[in-house]
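Can anyone check this?
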Amino acid sequence: MTPTFNQWMRYLTPGPAHRGLGLVCLGVGHQDGRLPTVGPRVMQNHVAVVVTAGTGWFSQAGAPPVEVVAPAVIWLFPGVQHHYAPHDVWTEWFVDFAGPAVAAYQDLGFIDPDRPVTPLTTADPAAHAIGRIAQACRRGSPYLEVETSAIVHEVLVALRRGRAGEDPHGDPVLDGLARDACLPISVADHAGRLGMPLAELRQSVRRLAGCSPKDYLLSIRLSRAKDLLATTDLPVAAVARRVGYDDPAYFTRLFTRRAGLPPSEFRAQQYRGFPAAN
């Protein structure tokens, strides 16, 4: 019987040293046409199935099937039974991956267990990145596991940027927090400036950035402080004021706890600037 679909796939077996990278590619593939039903089955690793054309259905953990309409990504989770198929024909790219960095991507909202089928505005960047993994596998290289693992990071970012309902250039809530991050105001004040309840702000930032508004603001403040320490000769107290802290001792404690060294030591290592203008 003549096959009604095209299929190409390749699997990798990274060693312990490669797994030390934190994220490894275990497999890649491309299929299109009248694909056979997948499952029910259970995987040992994560898989991103990027559907670029067609429609179908997906079921997880015995739940009723949900519709899949391209462009979309189907997330397969280790240890969770899944079952899916196209209604007629579709095109998919997939990448298998694993490693401790996956948990961080999940905490940051890039992989959402509550949305195993995630609609996309566009799947092209993710499919292109997966295609580069496939090209690397065809080409071969002594650095294949390192190269393909690096591209998996790009796939995850592309899928987040392509998610339907989100601005690929940033979110207004995060943009607003970043703009006003160095103002000496409370998180509640930030919520007021953004015109939203505090609870809604917390929920939104947790969903978008994987942390609390306080931590998000702190990261921005300290990043800007590092820029000033590395590129100007402003006193530490002046740097603290510029990023929203009137108490330089409190700023120094925060900086040291997050950066792992005091502001003065960071400057001694990183200074590349010119004297600050008066």
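Reply from J.R.: I decoded it. The domain at 172-270 is CATH 1.10.10.60 (Arc Repressor Mutant, subunit A).
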